[in-house]
Write a sequence for this structure.
């Protein structure tokens, strides 16, 4: 992984588990973006919430979030949830 600015870290390419969009960077809203195992990932294409798993060599993978993790995410990140809802509504309206 390589941090390219305070809010963006490049990592190996990983597909979204739902839509297949390839992701190669982690970004953050207002804080340093360095994905650790257990950090949340939100697909910019479909809005799916996944969880990062990072190997000892720094390779990133995404796994399905558990129901408890999704509850924690929605409780701890209400602004991100509102952005996901707005993004999905814009996509729906564009069809």
């Amino acid at each position: 992984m390589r941090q390219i600015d305070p809010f963006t870290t490049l990592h190996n390419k990983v597909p979204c588990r739902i839509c297949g969009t390839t992701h190669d960077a982690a970004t953050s809203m207002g804080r340093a973006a360095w994905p650790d195992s257990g950090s949340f990932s939100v697909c910019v294409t479909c809005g799916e919430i996944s969880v990062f798993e990072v190997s000892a060599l720094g390779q990133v993978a995404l796994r399905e979030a558990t129901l408890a993790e999704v509850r924690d995410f929605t409780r701890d990140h209400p602004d991100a949830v509102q952005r996901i809802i707005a993004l999905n509504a814009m996509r729906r309206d564009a069809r």
Summary: The first strand starts at residue 2 and ends at 5. The chain is about 30% helix and 35% strand. Residues 78-94 form the longest helix (17 residues). The two ends are 36 Å apart (CA to CA).
